[in-house]
């Protein structure tokens, strides 16, 4: 009888807890992404975050993810979150440089921080606070949203042997790196992703930058452009989750914390997922197309790129005090952390390759 009574008490407790859970309010949010429904690992990160948030909240926080094919405005995500049309956005800060140049550095800067350095800057070097300062004027919070790591410098139909080879070169390369290239005589263009392969194949452009093997392999650039250059323009590319402040503040404190943790976990998972995808894709690419030549830009070209980059940064910083504050913060952190990066990863790899 005692055992039966204990079982009855346990069942009653379970029934009551289930009833209490059923009575708890469910919060439903909408997230718009810049990415199409099959663009891994970017779209995976959005979906993983939503899944984590729902699981950690026992279903109390549910996030619907709309890929770009659903809302039809891949580069309208910023405005939709700002207006409250969507509660959350997943995109990249450097897409908004035309709206506010201060948002540019939170994704990537040429010759800047690597992915581990960038994450350390965000969470332990004041970067996250500066990002909130930049986004708050638009009624949004922003959080790191996943990193591609070092992006490759691009696919070129012809080898770059000197600075003269850049003059008149038609290249798709967006963001600040495009401005740097333009300063050296490159004819910079921005073409819709769906049209890139055709443009390269038909010689409408001579070169293009995309991401790295993990995403490049799906585009097929390696089939028509044999020279694959190493990166300089995006040593780390951090995506961003943008959250409408009013939507965030409506959540109970525990769900706010769950949302922030879900974003942080999903972001780092994208970095390690993409690392694996890059390694896997590269093995496939070089096996099927052994004519691919991995190249590094000549020293005179790299020196000129660094000089142009520095001049442009000085000019922009003089006009934008917040941008100067952000760039100065990154520079100071890089000065601190780069010595350790060299002592650890660089020298280890240098001595073991």
Multimerization state? single chain
Strand adjacency order, main sheet: 7-6-8-5-9-11
Straight-line N-to-C gap: 72 Å
- Unreliable stretches (pLDDT < 50, length at least 5) are 7-22
Radius of gyration: 23 Å
Mean pLDDT: 93
Q: Report the CATH C-level class of the largest domain.
A: Alpha Beta
Largest sheet: 6 strands, mixed
What is the CATH superfamily classification of the largest domain? Bacterial extracellular solute-binding protein, family 7
Derived structural class: alpha/beta
CATH architecture of the largest domain: 3-Layer(aba) Sandwich
* Basic shape: globular
Number of helical stretches of at least 4 residues:
13
Domain count:
2
Task: Kindly list the characteristics that best describe this protein.
D-Maltodextrin-Binding Protein, domain 2; organic acid binding; SBP_TakP-like; 2 domains; 353 residues; metal-binding; alpha/beta; 13 helices; Extracellular solute-binding protein, family 7; five-stranded mixed β-sheet; single chain
Structure characterization notes:
Pfam families: DctP. InterPro entries: DctP_fam, SBP_TakP-like, TakP/all3028, TRAP_DctP_sf. GO terms for molecular function: metal ion binding; organic acid binding. Keywords: Metal-binding, Signal. This is Extracellular solute-binding protein, family 7. It contains 13 helices and 11 strands. It is globular and about 65 Å long. The protein has 2 domains: 165 residues, D-Maltodextrin-Binding Protein, domain 2; 113 residues, D-Maltodextrin-Binding Protein, domain 2 (3-Layer(aba) Sandwich), CATH 3.40.190. β1, α2 and β2 form a beta-alpha-beta unit. The chain has a 6-stranded mixed beta sheet with strand order 7-6-8-5-9-11, with helices on one face. The chain has a 5-stranded mixed beta sheet with strand order 2-1-3-10-4, with helices on both faces. With 353 residues, it is an alpha/beta fold. It starts with a helix and ends with a helix. The longest helix has 36 residues.
């Amino acid at each position: 009888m005692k055992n039966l009574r204990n079982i009855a008490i346990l069942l009653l407790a379970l029934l009551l807890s289930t009833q209490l859970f059923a009575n708890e309010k469910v919060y439903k949010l909408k997230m718009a992404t810049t990415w199409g429904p099959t663009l891994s690992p970017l779209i995976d990160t959005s979906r993983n975050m939503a899944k984590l948030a729902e699981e950690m909240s026992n279903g109390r926080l549910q996030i619907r993810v709309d890929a770009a094919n659903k809302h039809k405005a891949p580069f309208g995500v910023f405005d939709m979150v700002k207006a409250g049309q969507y509660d959350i956005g997943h995109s990249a800060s450097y897409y908004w440089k035309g709206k506010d140049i201060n948002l540019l550095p939170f994704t990537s800067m040429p010759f800047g921080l690597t992915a581990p350095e960038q994450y350390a800057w965000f969470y332990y070097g004041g970067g996250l606070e500066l990002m909130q300062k930049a986004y708050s004027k638009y009624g949004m919070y922003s959080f790191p949203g996943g990193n591609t790591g070092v992006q490759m410098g691009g696919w070129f139909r012809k080898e770059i042997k000197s600075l003269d080879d850049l003059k008149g070169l038609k290249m798709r390369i967006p963001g600040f790196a495009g401005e740097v290239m333009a300063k050296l005589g490159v004819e910079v263009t921005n073409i819709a992703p769906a049209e890139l392969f055709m443009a390269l194949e038909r010689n409408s452009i001579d070169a293009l930058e995309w991401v790295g093997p993990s995403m490049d392999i799906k585009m097929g650039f390696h089939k028509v452009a044999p020279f694959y250059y190493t990166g300089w323009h995006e040593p780390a590319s951090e995506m961003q989750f943008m959250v409408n402040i009013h939507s965030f503040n409506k959540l109970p404190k525990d769900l706010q914390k769950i949302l922030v943790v879900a974003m942080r976990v999903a972001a780092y998972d994208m970095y390690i997922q993409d690392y694996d995808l890059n390694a896997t894709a590269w093995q496939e690419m070089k096996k099927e197309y052994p004519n691919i030549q991995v190249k590094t830009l000549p020293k005179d070209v790299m020196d000129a790129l660094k000089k142009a980059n520095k001049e442009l940064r000085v000019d922009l910083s003089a006009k934008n005090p917040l941008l100067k504050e952000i760039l100065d913060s990154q520079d100071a952190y890089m000065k601190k952390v780069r010595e350790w990066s060299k002592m650890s990863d660089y020298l280890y790899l240098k001595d073991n390759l």
